Structures are given as structure tokens and as C-alpha cells.
Amino acid sequence: MSAPVLQVRQVYKHYGDAHVLNGIDVEVDDGQAVVLIGGSGSGKSTLLRCVNLLEVVTDGEIVLEGEEITDPRVDVDAVRRRIGVVFQSYNLFPHLTALQNVSLAPRVVGKIGKAEANDRAREMLARVGLAAHADSYPDRMSGGQQQRTAIARALANEPRLLLLDEVTSALDPELVGEVLDLIGELKAQGMTILMATHEMGFAHRVADEVCFLDAGVVAESGPPEQVLDHPSNPRLQQFLSRVLRH
Amino acid sequence: MVSDKEAWRRSFRRDRRRKSTLVAILSTIAFAVVVWLGATHAPGWTSARETFLSGHQFRHDTPDILRGLLIDLKLLVICEPCILLLAVVIATLRTSVSPVLAPVRIGCALYVDLFRGCPMIILLYLFAEGIPSLRLHHVTNSALVWGGVAIIVSYSAYVTEVMRSGIQSVHPSQRAAARSLGLTQRQTLRLVVLPQAVRNVIPALLNDFVALQKDVGLISIVGAVADAIQTATADNDASFNFTPFVIAAILFILLAAPSGRFADYYARRALRRQQAGVVV
User: Which pairing describes strands A33-37 and A193-196: parallel, antiparallel, or unpaired?
Assistant: First the structure.
């Protein structure tokens, strides 16, 4: 058993009086998919932002592959290169084609040649089923296609860990499936994933562990059958009944 | 209470901040010393100092030039609101869609082309010298008033375009949302579009305001107005010493500095609001 890819230990994040994270513990092992669930304001997005070093933690530590990345001496850019992030609102660069979106980072960050970067980008786009859309601009693609391009872009740096922040929340219902299927495939291929989502069915099928966040702590965690089907925490029971009712 | 680890991190960051500040101070001092030595060791330094930085001239001319600066300030305080008002009105008319207003739109476009295209110095001559020379009845011949008008028309042509870009930067869905609530075209513009438009272009407006603070000094070319630059010119004519211009320059810079800082502060605040605490 190798060491976990990601360890979040007793992380606090306070914005003045707003205490968003209050001593949170999460671990993601190699090849695992850990799903964060919880109401809005429970701290899911903040946790993901802390892991990607977009936020400075108020206390606690985050360890990536044995290296403490909350140490102020770490090279932030080098850490971020090892982590792929996909946002809820895609955030594709509108002035670049799908291919250019995907090849940009390998070209300028990874310092590989343009031809090689383009080859790799084509490969990534094929992997997400968008080989035919390489030369399309984001505004000519559907939301699902844009989000899959964003996933390809995150994968192009060959990250050790993929962070997904409610990546299907902005999509039309009929487009959600194609993105979730893709994430399921990535997981099957061995990608290590930490994601926040409201798709309980998907969490049930794909997650190795589900963490219920409430008031900035992990209120309950475990395998999906246990957490989603037999919740013991009353707040979680309440949350699930609200999410699953409609 | 924080953990030992966090306490260490904070002290580490504090040390690093202190070190950065120290480096900044040292590099500033070193830079200043180099500039100072470069200037004082130039072959013509002694005579240049007497011509441009004469202590006697400083003491003698500063009060006069300060009095002149008051005229510039007065001009600024009167011109700026007129410019903004005119710019909002013209920009609004230019972005209107009603077919009836087509001639007005053409007129506005002409206004902008004419007054933005014409150098401000020529506008100042035409207004402040040309109009009084017509000797119209019941119309003031004051060079100050007509100079002010020249500044207003020139600047309002620029600011109109800033306002127009602001109006066009408001997403069409905002207009659609307002109209679907039953607001009229005009209410939509006044209550929904313009407030957002102005907020979007405040940095550009501040930039134009800082530019105007010194461009009001161009009124000195009219001659009859004893503003700061005109006063300095007169002092220079009398003494053949350029120190009065340096004094005027320092005063204009001091006048512009607070607006510059405010523009920086405003831009920082807007950025902070937009990224909500993100450190990138």
C-alpha cells in the first residue's frame, strides 16, 4: 500500500468572521475517486481551492505525494503543474480553439515543442471524444463539449491528481451524462480524483469514498453504499432527502 | 489559537515580508544615489542648477505661481462636471436606436470627430481669440470663459467615447431583463444600463481626469489668463531663469498625485471584489 496521493489534515480556512473550513481531514489514495457532497456554503469549493493553492489555509496542512504543499517555501507553480483542475464554468480561453486551449500549457509550461504539444492535445481531445472539434472555438461548442475540452486541458499536463468542482452544475440535463461518463472512464483508467458534485447517482457508481461536508468539517464519510444509503448523521439524512426528493 | 506549524508559517511569511521591504528600501536608495551622482557630476551641473533650481527664484516666484494655480483649479472644478454631463448625454444619444433620432446620432458623431480630431491648442485659439473678436453683443469676451469652453468641448469628445464603450460593455441580457420587467427604454437606460456603464469605465474616467488636471494649464497659451503656466512664462521672460517652470511642474504633479493614488486604490478594490480573495 503506497502513501496517499493527497492528505488534507486539520485544515482551517477563515475569511474574517466567516469560518468556512473548521479542521477538515480528507485522504485520497492512488487511483481513488473521493467525492465531496454537502449543501452550498459547506466548504466543498473552498477545500478544492485550498488544495490547488488558490487560497492560503488559515491552519492545518495539505500533503501531495508526501510533500507538504502548504509550506510557504514550496514552488506554487510546480505544485499546480501536478494538479489538474476543472471548474464549474469551464473557463476555456475564448480566443483560442479547442486544440490551442489544450496545447497551451504543455507548450509554454511543459516546454515541449509546438508539434509535440499539438500531437498530445489531439490525443487528449480524442480521449474525451472531441477529435473532430479540435479547430472549433469555445463559443461554437455545446456546454458538454466545452466542459470535456476543459477536462482535456486539465489532463494535458499529465497531472497526478484531478480536482473537479461541480463540473456538471452549469450543464443542461441531457449533457450531464457525457461529462460524467468521461470522468468514470478516467477513473477506470487509474486517474486519482477529488471532486465536489451534486450527482448522487454518479457518486454511488464511481466513488470509492464519499465525504459529507457540513459547516466546514467532514461530518460523515465512508463508502457510498454506507454514506448514501444508510446515513447516520441527521444533517446528512436531511441533506439527502432534500437532494433526492425531486 | 493556531497550531505550531501555522505559527511557524506566519513567522516565516512575516520574515519574508520584512526582507522584501528591506530590499525595496535599499534598492530605492541605491537608485536615488546613482541618479543624484549622475546629475551632480554632469559637466554643466552648476549652471543648470542655477537656471532650473534657483533657490532665490523658488522663494520669489512660488506665491505668484500658486495664485495662478488657483485659476487652473477653478477651471478644473467647473470643466469636469460639464464634461461628464455632456459626455453622458452625447454617448446616450449616440447609442440610441430610435429612427427619429438618426440626425441627432449623425450630429453626435460629427461632434466627436470634429472636437476629438482638432488639436486642443487650436481649439483654444479659435474659441478664446476667435469668438471675442466677433464682438458679439450680450456675449462675454472673457478669454477664461471661452478657453474653458474649448477645454470642455475637446475633453467631452474623448470622454463621450469612454462612456459609449461603457454603455456597450453592459451585456444585452441586462437590457432584456429590464425591458421584460416593463421598464421603458429610457428607464432601462437610466436605472440599469448607465449605473453599470459608469462603474465599468471609472478607471478610464479617472485617467482622463488626471490628464485634464494638467491640460487646463494649456489655457496659458491664450495669454490673457494668468494661470500657473502663464505666470511662470511671465517670470521666465523677466528673469531668463527656468526655475518658474520647474515650480509650476512640481505644483501640477502634486495636484495630480492624489487622483493617481485614488485611481490605483479604486482599481485594486475592483480587482479584489472580482476575484474574492484569490491569490494567483
Answer: parallel
